[in-house]
Amino acid sequence: MPTLPVGITCYDNPVQGYTAATGYSGVYTLPVAGETATSNTLCFKSLNTSNARSVTLTPGYTYYIQGDLTTGGGAPISGSNVQLYVGGM
C-alpha cells in the first residue's frame, strides 16, 4: 500500500448513521462538510458505513482508511474512478 502523503489530515468516521425518527436522510457523499481534501486525497481513521442509508465516494478521489472499513448493514457504497487503501498504515 502506498504511504499516506505528508500533510494529509486523517478524519474520524464521518458516517453517523440513519435515524428515521429524526428525519435525517443517512445519505452521505464523501467528503462531507468540514473535511478538506488535498490533491483529491482524503484520509479517515476508520470508516463504518453500517448505519448509513448510502455512501457515495467522489469521482477521482483517493481514500486512505487507516483502520477498519466496515460495510455491514447493507448500505450501498458507490463511486467511480476512486482508489481505496485500507489498513496497515
Beta-sheet strand percentage? 25-35%
- Total of helices: 0
Average pLDDT reading: 85
The geometry reads as: globular
Q: Using DSSP, what is the number of strands?
A: 9
Q: What this model shows, in words?
A:
By secondary structure, this protein is mainly β. The chain is 0% helix and 31% strand. The protein is built from no helices and 9 strands. It has strands at 10-11, 27-30, 41-44, 47-48, 54-57, 62-65, 69-70, 77-78, 83-86. The strands form 3 sheets. It has a 4-stranded parallel beta sheet with strand order 1-3-6-9, with no helix packed on it. A 3-stranded parallel beta sheet has the order 2-5-8, with no helix packed on it. The chain has a two-stranded parallel sheet with strand order 4-7.
